[in-house]
Every structure is written in structure tokens, then in C-alpha cells.
Amino acid sequence: KHVGIAVRLTFETLEGEKTSSELTVVNNGTVAIWYDWRRRSQPDSFQGLKRNRMQRFYFNNREGVILPGETKTFTFFFKSLHAGIFREYWEFGTHPTLLGGATLQVNLYAVSLTQDIFREERKLLKHKLAAHEAVTIVESVLQELLSGILTPERAQSPVDAYLTEEDLFHHRNPRVQCWPLHPHTTTTT
């Protein structure tokens, strides 16, 4: 039982939205072909990571007949409530058997994408955090810098360093009283 013809239908949509693809089968022969659909399981190397076996691919998988010269279109739908990559394998069985018994395989591959609804908020938050980080770093560096700057202690000065001559005179001669001279006063000797 090798694969005679394999068809791959690929779907891509946002999570929660539906998309479709079509497969057209033509009977170019002279006899009616009876068909049925059989789902084939494929070994999955990530058995532990598999989610629940929720149905995501939909199509009319009832058996039927394609008359000579008739064209049959099968519409496949895909919808997933969760983002991810999904696949299913189906065999299109026929009677009389076609292709010397080789299987006609339909491979369904789908990608469900998540919509980034918080993109603008995330950008704004990232900008605010970067600004806050910059302010915090500047404050930290400034505090470290200021803690390294010390004002030298005032040098000890002599007691009389800031005294005027008059103050020095009074300090050295506490008993002498001086009367200020007035410029308009004349003295005679």
C-alpha cells in the first residue's frame, strides 16, 4: 500500500476564524467510481505535547459516487480556537481500485496564528519602563557622585583674623575710650 497520488491542502488563518480550500476530483474514465474517506493516523514524535483531539478540519466525508465525466468538488474547512500547527491525513478510497491499489492521500496542513491585540500597549509599557530605568540609573549615578563630593572643613582661623583695626585697638586697650572725630570740628592747641 504505497501512496500513488498525494494532495496537500494548506490553510492559514487567525485563531477563532474559519478558512477553506477546495479539492476537485474528475472521473475521466468510463465507469462510475464509488468513493469513501478514511482517516489515517501518522506517528507523532511529540506525543507528550499533543493537545486534546479537538476537531479542527471539517468536510463532507460521507461516501458517494462519481459518474463518468463528472467533476466532484470537496470543500475543506479549518478553524481552531487556539494558535498552532495542525495536520490530518485522509485516504480517498475508490472502488474499483485505481492506480493498481496505490492510495490516494489527502494531507491537510494548517497554521492558526494568534493576533497580537496588545501590541500598542506593550510598546507603550516598554517605552515607559525604559524611561523609568533611565531615570533610576541617573538618580543612582547622581547619588553616588554626590556622596563622593565632600566640602572641606573650615580651616581654623585666629580669633582676631576678621577684626578691624579699631576692634583690635579696643581688644588690646579695653580701658581706653575713643571719641570719634567729626570732620567739621576744629581743635585748637
UniProtKB/TrEMBL annotation:
Top-rank taxon, per record: Eukaryota
InterPro entries per UniProt: Ig-like_fold, MYCBPAP
PANTHER family from the UniProt entry: MYCBP-ASSOCIATED PROTEIN (PTHR48421:SF1)
Name assigned to this protein: MYCBP-associated protein
Species name: Neovison vison (American mink)
Gene: H0Y7R1
